[in-house]
From TrEMBL:
Keywords from the named record: Membrane, Signal-anchor, Transmembrane, Transmembrane helix
Residue ranges of every copy of the Trichome birefringence-like N-terminal domain listed in the record: 78-130
Residue span, Trichome birefringence-like C-terminal domain: 131-424
Name used for this protein in its record: Trichome birefringence-like N-terminal domain-containing protein
Family: Belongs to the PC-esterase family. TBL subfamily.
Length: 428
């Protein structure tokens, strides 16, 4: 009897305590939900708009479609993605060489016999924030009805191929244009979002003649004339991603106002010897000024221009004297600093973008930004094809001379991170 009453008393006590506690939990929770609902209504009223000049937009998607909501989001987060460290990441890449058909054969490192796969399991961790994993659907939603042009050297192609592979995990691109006899000018179309991504080969950005085995051993550059092969299409671009640098390290002759102003490493030509830093600066200034002036003269001033900074090579020895890149792990951030030639090229690129921003501000509608990859690329000597630019280079033993690629990047590989940052720039 006493035990029964005791149990009843405890039951009543715990019941009252439960009801009392539940009341004080539910009331604040209800008020919080109401506040968040009202806040979401306020935020949804502001949109981010990207102007389209490439083609007429397709009919609007139904409101129930996931494609119809991304452009209504506003992204306020900003971060310095240029400084950080590479950390282990067991999740690995979004794609592989067998599932993506746009990878150049010399960048299919695993398919070409590279035995180690550890280089695929690192992620870039900025010092001040987190860099989100690439979201292919988000990217496509943000560039719907847009035309993005990658202009410049083979690293522009390398980055675009990486981007195409990641986007192809959610939507298949169609190759709608290819230049005759080579792959230097191509265009892909994503029917799902009416988005176009183009590649324009222009390693100098300005007019010039590339050196060749059949012709002169030096490049010829006209520093004050933009290359019309890509510039004539400026009015169709909504965004231009610029990549250049490595071709300026080669012997070259420079023209300005129709006259030779000097040359680099061409002793037999009797020109004034000059380093490449001045021409490097001049061509970027010519390029950015041409974009601003042509867009303004066409009455279509809306354009985003992203300049990718210099991506260092990792040859141990000279590139043309059997230099190699055999490391299998990243450097730690304290092991390497951006300095010397790499640092000076990056400095020039950043300065010229800042100068162009000041000029563009007079007209409005221009957005210029830097995709700063120099430090994160410097720390990845393990991410290049190296000898695996060719299939199974050691299948028959170790040859006396093995060609190495220590400039471009394996796909998948560290260059995918460039596009993760690229997406954050577009969101911004």
């Amino acid at each position: 009897m006493g035990t029964t009453l005791l149990l009843k008393d405890r039951l009543v006590f715990f019941t009252n305590r439960f009801v009392f506690s539940t009341f004080y939990v539910l009331v604040p929770a209800t008020l919080l939900c109401t506040y968040l609902y009202l806040l979401s209504l306020t935020q949804h009223s502001t949109t981010t708009t990207y102007h389209s000049s490439f083609s007429s937009p397709p009919p609007p998607l139904p409101s129930s479609s996931p494609f119809s909501t991304e452009k209504d989001k506003v992204y306020h987060h900003s971060c310095d993605y240029s400084n950080g460290d590479w950390v282990h990441d067991k999740s690995g890449p979004l794609y592989n060489a067998t599932t993506c058909g746009t990878i150049k054969e010399s960048e299919k490192c695993i398919s070409n016999g590279r035995p180690d796969m550890g280089y695929l399991y690192w992620r870039w961790k900025p010092n001040e924030c987190n860099l989100p994993r690439f979201e292919p659907l988000t990217f496509l939603q943000l560039v719907q009805n847009k035309h993005i042009a990658f202009v410049g050297d083979s690293l522009a192609r390398n980055q675009l191929e990486s981007l195409l592979c990641m986007l192809a995990t959610v939507s298949t691109p169609n190759l709608v244009y290819k230049s005759a006899n080579d792959n230097k000018f191509r265009r892909w179309h994503f029917p799902s979002h009416n988005a176009n991504l183009s590649l324009y080969w222009s390693p100098f950005l300005v007019q010039g003649v590339e050196r060749s085995n059949e012709g002169p051993y030096y490049n010829t550059m006209y520093l004050d004339h933009v290359n019309e092969r890509w510039a004539r299409d400026i009015e169709w671009f909504d965004m231009i991603v610029v990549s250049y640098g490595h071709w300026f390290l080669l012997p070259s002759v420079y023209y300005e106002d129709g006259l030779v102003i000097g040359s680099l490493n061409c002793p037999d030509l009797n020109h004034t010897q000059m380093d490449f830093y001045v021409p490097l600066r001049k061509v970027l200034r010519t390029t950015l000024s041409s974009i601003i002036e042509r867009k303004r003269s066409k009455g279509k001033s809306e354009v985003d221009v992203i300049v990718k900074t210099f991506s260092p090579a990792h040859f141990e020895g000279d590139w043309n004297k059997a230099g190699t890149c055999l490391k299998t792990k990243p450097y730690k951030k304290e092991e390497k600093e951006v300095e010397g030639m790499d640092g000076e090229i990056r400095k020039i690129e950043i300065e010229e973008v800042e100068n162009a921003k000041a000029k563009a501000s007079e007209f409005g509608g221009f957005r210029l930004d830097i995709l700063d990859v120099t430090k994160l690329a410097l720390l990845r000597p393990d991410g290049h094809p190296g000898p695996y630019m060719n299939p199974f280079p050691f299948a028959n033993g170790v040859p006396e001379h093995v060609q190495n690629d220590c400039v471009h990047w394996c796909l998948p590989g560290p260059i995918d991170t460039w596009n993760e940052i690229f997406l954050q720039i577009i969101k911004k």
